[in-house]
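Progress report, Aim 2. The chain analyzed during this reporting quarter is listed below.
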Amino acid sequence: MSKYLVRVSFVVALGGLLFGFDTAVISGANPFIQPYFEMDDWTLGWTVSSVILGCIVGVVIAGPVGDLYGRKRPLILVAILFIISALGSALATQLFSFIGYRLIGGLAVGAASMLSPVYISEVSTNAHRGKLVSLNQLTIVIGILLAFFSNYFLVDIPEDNWRWMFGVEAIPASLFLVSLFYVPESPRWLLLRGEQKEANKIWKKLHAESEGEKLTVINESKLNFKILKEWKYLKWILVGVVLAFLQQMTGINIIMYYAPNIFSTAGFSTDNALLQTIVVGVVNTLFTLVAMRFVDSFGRKNLLLVGTVLMFLFLSLMSYLFLSGQQQSMITLIAILGFIASFACSMGPVLWVVISEIFPGEIRAMASSLAIMSLWIGAFFVSLTFPSMLSGWGGGYSFLFYACCNLISFFFVWKFIPKTKGKSLEEITELLY
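Predicted structure tokens for the chain:
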């Protein structure tokens, strides 16, 4: 891979870092914003999940905007929205305005979750696409880890520590904004719009230090919404939509959004709970690197199958510990870390690779936005219901529910997900369509 390609991919993947930071920062702030805004369990669930409503809208908007105006200009707008959300959330004095700024952050997260992996897949060759698209997931988990570290070190600020937790996001968001002015437009998007000379110029620069492959697209026609109704397209759109929803039903965000709450329910102190979330973030990051190492050699489908089985086993263990009253032990932490490692090796990064591959160029942005919108609908359901589920059902039955969801995910992957290892985007399109 050329150094320029890696730099460009990393800059665009910073959208993933902000995605991770923005969605995870609420975890450490929950114990402080709940009494500040006088929230009960349902209000807390609504406040946490409000960002996800913004994500759903952001994804819906990002699809057609990405097809009409490219990938770069919408990403610049995304960076500006991240800055507004960070500063607004930090300064909010009323719950209504706080939720409003979280919704703005959700718009940015939703758009970034679609645009960043689509851009990276379109500038990559087939030999390295899995690694580079997984880079977006790596930056997401690094963003989550940074949020956990930030929350831990800011927790001892004597007054309104949660304001600093949200406000520091403006720093990486500003870096993202400035860096985007130095990346080119997606060459495949330019080619779809008939700008062949400029597309080839950018492609050559991106792959100047390697042989690369010829820049091609199978269908250079403009998007016609009627084609989405054709079964050959609709079938794979449905596969992408269901897989994205199942990613959230693995239960990953019950850990990412409510880790301190879970550890507190298990009997750990608030300080220990925040410290343990850092350990969760470190494991998440390390095993995402493992997935990046093997996604192009071991294969997308194989990683998904192994990961869903392991997540089922670890969540079942957590369920047993809570039901038997043994949750206040190191085994609980080990089970949570095992679950996080299994997700980070499979559903975490591989989902983004799959949905960036299985749609042809003429519908890639639109179809990806539909799939990712499904992901955020799943995330909204999880984040809204889990506080009440945890207090009503208890940890044992809550974790058992999500363990069963992982079994469903295993059989869906086994039946419907194609093997795309080593194939170019155009070869995958020919195979599936």
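The chain has one domain: 3-432. The domain at 3-432 is CATH 1.20.1250.20 (Growth Hormone; Chain: A;). These observations will guide the mutagenesis work planned for the next reporting period.
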